[in-house]
TrEMBL record:
Keywords on record: Methyltransferase, Transferase
Name of the featured protein: Methyltransferase domain-containing protein
Signal peptide residues on this chain, from the entry's feature table: none
Molecular function terms, GO-annotated: methyltransferase activity
One Pfam family it belongs to: Methyltransf_12
Upper lineage: Bacteria, Bacillati, Actinomycetota, Actinomycetes, Kitasatosporales
Superkingdom of this protein's organism: Bacteria
GO biological process: methylation
Domain Methyltransferase type, residue spans: 44-139
InterPro entries referenced in this protein's UniProt entry, alphabetically: Methyltransf_12, SAM-dependent_MTases_sf
Amino acid sequence: MQPYNRHLITHARHPIAAPLHPHSVLDLIERAVGDDDAARPRILDLGCGEGAWLLEVLAHFPGARAVGVDIDGGGLARAAEQAEALGVADRLELHEMPAADYRAAEPFDVVLNVGATHAFGGLLPTLEAARAHLAPGGRALIGDGFWEREPTPAVLEILGESPDAYADLAGTVDRITGAGWTPVYGHTSTLDEWDDYEWSWTGSLAEWALDHPDHPRAGEAAETAAAHRTAWLHGYRGTLGFVTLVLRRTA
């Protein structure tokens, strides 16, 4: 019987686990890594999931070497399979462990954490973790939520968040600069990018449930897809935003 891994199912058609179109992803990678095809950067993704960001980097930068850290063994296995298929497995190192526990002997040129700041307990602790792994002059690529508009009590209840879980976009950038970082580029996800991500997430899970009616977790998958779709359409759509920033240390 096919194993049930919700993350792999929900991201089957949208491997980047964030509301970003492919061209936005590539633009951010080029801004973070650089546009020198001969460069040999070292890249670290803290909370890499199935390694979609790292696979993009390795495909576009033949000299790059990458390390991914995540607690999801299924996602890491998928990353390893994709790396073999793309012919980049010799440049990818994967670790199944909490991202906060990872230690490396050498610093990295780029440290990523996009949509996984929960691994460190929020945005500012994530920035501290990135700082510890970053080489002088390196860049961090960080993606996190922000409030597009003030959330209603109903939205906060749906998300299970408090009003101060996020700031607005200006406040988010202020938090980052106050922590000793300078944004050198950023991308604010559009509503179209959000919709594509959410339709892919809910649709892939709902379709899996329909295609596997005899699976013992088919009902759970269908209920999860429906609940997520309702929370999005009747709750946080247009209220919860997402910004991905290329950062350098201010000092």
